[in-house]
Structures are given as C-alpha cells and as structure tokens.
Amino acid sequence: MPTTPPPSPTGRTAPARATIDDVARSAGVSKATVSRFLNHRETLLTPDIAARVQVAVTALGYSPSPMAQALKRGRSRLIGLVVADITNPYSVAVLRGAEKACQEAGYLLMLFNLGNEGGRERQAIEALAAYQVEGFILNRVGDDAAAMAEAARSARPMVLVDRRNDTLAADFVSLDNAAATRMAAAHLHGAGYHHQLFVTEPIEDVSSRHERAAAFRAFSAETGTAATVLEHAEGDDAALDDALRRLHAEAGATGRPAAVLSANAVATLRVAAAAMRLGWQFGRELGFVGFDETEWAPLVGPGLSTVAQPTDALGRAAVECLLERLRGATHAPREILLPGRLVPRASSVVPGAAVLPPRAAD
Q: Using H for helix, E for strand and C for coil, what is the string for 95-124?
C-alpha cells in the first residue's frame, strides 16, 4: 500500500520524488528504455519513443540519482576521510585542503569523526565502505589492529595523514615533526629561554606526538637546555599548574626566563588557561611557542608565537596520493614530509628584543 508523503514544514504534503518507474509509466515504455535514454543511447530508440520519454522526464521533473548512476558505472566518486578529532583546528584545516582537492578532481569527501575514540576506527571504515567510497584518507587515533585489518580487507587504496601505522602498506603525508620541533625549540633557546617545558596531550600510540617529544628531548640534550616533557590529560589542571610553577622557579633560580612549547592547539588552550589561573602573561613571566597557527593565536595575550603547519598542502597531498593509486599507480608507499613555518610574536620575545618576521623552516 503506498504511503503518504510526510508534511512539509509549511504544513503541506511534500510531493514525492519521481522515480524511473513513474517516467516509464508516463511514457508508456519499459524502465530499460528510459535507462537507455538517460544514458544518452538515443540511437537505440525511435525518435517517437525518445520524444515521449523526454516529455515524461520534463513533466515529472525527474532527475536520476548521481550515486545510482555512478555505481552502475562502477565508480562512486567518493573518498572517505576519517579524522581523530574534528574539534582540533588541525583536523578542520586539513579537511578543507582535502575537500578543495576532491572538488577540483570531481570527487566528494565523506567525513567520519572518531571523537578521539580509538574503538570507533573499525566502525568508521565499515560505515564508509558501505557507501562505496573508492579510497580512504586516515587520520587515526591509535593502533587498532582490527580496524587496520578491516581497512586492508576492503582492498581500497588508503593514505595516512599525520599518524603512522607500520602494518599498512600506505602512503604517508605529514608535517616534518622533528624539523619543526627543533625550529621552535631553537627559536626559544636563541631568545634566551634555556628552561623549557614541552606540553602535549598523552602521547600513547600517536606517532606525531612521539616524534615531537623525541625531537624536543634531543635538542635539549644537544644544547644543554633544561627541558621537561609533560603529558597533560584533559581536566588535570593541577598537574599543569604545578609543572609551570616548578619551571618558573627553576628558571628564576638561574636568573633566566622560562618558556613552554605546546604540541598542538588543544595543548595551547590548556596552557593559556593555566597562565590565566596563575596570573602570568606570555612574554613576561612565561615565553611561549605553540604548534598550529590558529585564527585566535594573534589575539591571546600579546600574540602567540606559533609553528604553522601546511594544513592545506597536507590535505591536498593526501588526495593527490590517493588519486594516483585510483588511477593505477603501483609504486612503493611514499612518505611525504612538509616543512612547518615559524610565526614569531611577542609571546616568545624577551622584553626589549625585536620581533622577527615569519620564516619557513630550513
């Protein structure tokens, strides 16, 4: 029994969308005949039948589903993007770059946000595969073996962004984390900040956090900088406040200023909140450089110095790698590391020193 279309917001019954069956009945032909017409195979039809189908299509306002047509051709023109945390400005910026590259290539991007829940990775891959995506771009949470096995079983090409997985034969696109971290730490060291604290979200199995923390420790060992790494869990304000007090006291005992290097925009906001609780100002009681150039970085305190990631280029590079695979490329998995850019502002300048213009990483 046919169902009545649901009422529209105005209270009127919304008209049902015409189907290929409706067109066939109106034109007095078969669905196969309508399909031939819609696929521009009019040469297989008589002029009279083609005209009847055209009249029916126009009268009913029929438009074929792009997804259905694509699947008939064996191509969905969809790419699945899995992101660890859409609230992270980095994820949003990479998404924009990937989306623009997809549009230019005639593809649509389907997004699945994990919300930093590692247990949802397999669910994400299964859900996107059900929509017949042609390939995956993965910004993962951790090492979920079942999820990676599911990705491999899908037999679709995939590209990893920012976070590695040694078990997958996939292209990898990321910031050059080691070079960018050394650049930021060297900037602080050169400004006179010889006591530094690196604040990161819990490192766990996230490769980019491992790489940044390791590069920070290596630079400290080479230069003799008094440096500490703090893995800060969300909500543990007391631990962050205590770490900052200790940093400030140790630096003060030597007569030198102290500084923080934050691992991403999430950590930056936590450090900014801690500084406010302690009544400190960046560039005065505490030097600062943070990963991720956000719209609000120039507005916090005297302006926050940052390491700008090439997020647009990262998103585009991931899509380009995936499209190459979809076109049949079979070369060995590649690793593409892009440089960061230092954006110095007053938060990392010792009072009385000049603020240098932004520069690219070496």
A: HHHHHHHHHHHCCEEEEEECCCCHHHHHHH
Q: How far from the centroid of its chain's Cα atoms is residue 63's Cα?
A: 34
Tens of pLDDT along 224-271? 999 999 999 988 999 999 999 999 999 989 888 999 999 999 999 999
Segment 253-258 long-range contacts (CB within 8 Å, at least 24 positions apart): 254/194, 254/195, 256/192, 256/193, 256/194, 256/195, 257/192, 257/193, 257/195, 257/286, 257/287, 257/350, 258/193, 258/195, 258/196, 258/197, 258/286, 258/287
pLDDT beyond 80 at 106: yes
Cα dihedral 55, 57, 58, 60 sign: positive
The pair phi, psi for residue 108, each rounded to 5°, is -110, 150
155: left (phi over 0), alpha (psi -120 to 50) or beta: left
C-alpha gyration radius of the chain = 27
Residue 290 near residue 268 (C-beta atoms within 8 A): yes
- Which amino acid is present at 320? E
| Dist CA 255 CA 228 (whole Å) | 18
Strands 78-83 and 108-113, by their bridges, are parallel
pTM assigned to the model:
0.76
Give CA–CA dist 28/56, Å, rounded. Answer: 9
Q: Which residue has the tokens 């990963």?
A: 291
